[in-house]
Write a structure and sequence with these properties.
By secondary structure, the protein is mainly β. Helices cover 9% and strands 58% of the residues.
């Protein structure tokens, strides 16, 4: 188990142990629907392949904005705190063409980039007005474990071989960890809650250097390309309460 997960899991375990002893405590199964917005180009990690590809492909980083769906189990401990374990899913395919290059017949050289994120978030939240108040603002932080997959497929130009055009696909996946922060407002009843929240997570992962574009300055230093996985998620939430 990843060492950074141990303290978070201990907190969640404590939450599960303490919750039944709280008279007014109700657990919540939360569902979310929202939009994931990737970090802007000026804020992305050094060597990010999505930024680097814009040297020769037509698209914007903002094109990777995507729908996000998720679920979360929230367990209160005490009147003013709760812990949560949640998972969400987003995926976006972005079509692009090469800038300044075309096929021999004048057709565009087309390529697709795809990014999939499945963050698992372990969070602890504070509710300043308490669990029993119908109006419940909250703020929290924790650890995100992000399963990711990044792919490029379609037509490519071999700039080291007389600009030869070939068709291929390159795929990389893995797991990365990083901090997550969350803030929102919900309106709580005895059996249902509804509200809105903003989440931010930050993480990045290395890519195989032989398969993806590396900026010349990083290539000279022997550094691999990276993919920035960070961004903001804006959610509408609805929850089902159960327990005491």
């Amino acid at each position: 188990m990843h060492k950074r997960l141990i303290p978070v899991l201990l907190v969640v375990g404590a939450v599960s142990t303490l919750a039944p002893t709280t008279v007014s405590a109700q657990q919540t199964l939360n569902f979310s629907l929202g939009v994931f917005v990737p970090r802007g180009e000026d804020a992305r990690v050094e060597g990010d392949v999505i930024s680097a590809n814009r040297d020769f492909l037509f698209y914007d980083v903002d094109d990777f904005k995507s729908a996000s769906v998720g679920g979360e189990w929230l367990v209160p401990f005490g009147q003013y705190f709760e812990g949560g374990i949640g998972i969400s899913f987003s995926r976006k395919s972005v079509d692009s063409v090469y800038a300044g290059f075309v096929e021999a017949n004048g057709a565009e050289i087309e390529q697709t980039l795809r990014l999939r994120l499945v963050p698992i978030a372990f969070t602890v939240r504070a509710l300043p007005l308490g669990q029993s108040n119908a109006f419940q603002p909250y703020i929290g932080a924790g650890l995100a474990v992000i399963n990711w997959r990044y792919a490029e497929f379609g037509d490519f130009i071999d700039f080291n071989n007389n600009n030869a055009i070939f068709n291929d696909s390159y795929v990389a996946d893995g797991t990365a960890t990083g901090p997550v922060v969350v803030g929102g407002i919900r309106f709580g009843g005895q059996s249902l809650t509804a509200g809105g929240e903003i989440r931010y997570h930050a993480a990045a992962a290395d890519l195989p250097a032989g398969d993806f574009y590396v900026r010349p300055e990083r290539l000279a230093q022997g550094l691999p390309p990276r993919v920035d996985l960070g961004g903001w998620t804006y959610n509408f939430t609805i929850g089902v309460r159960f327990g005491r």
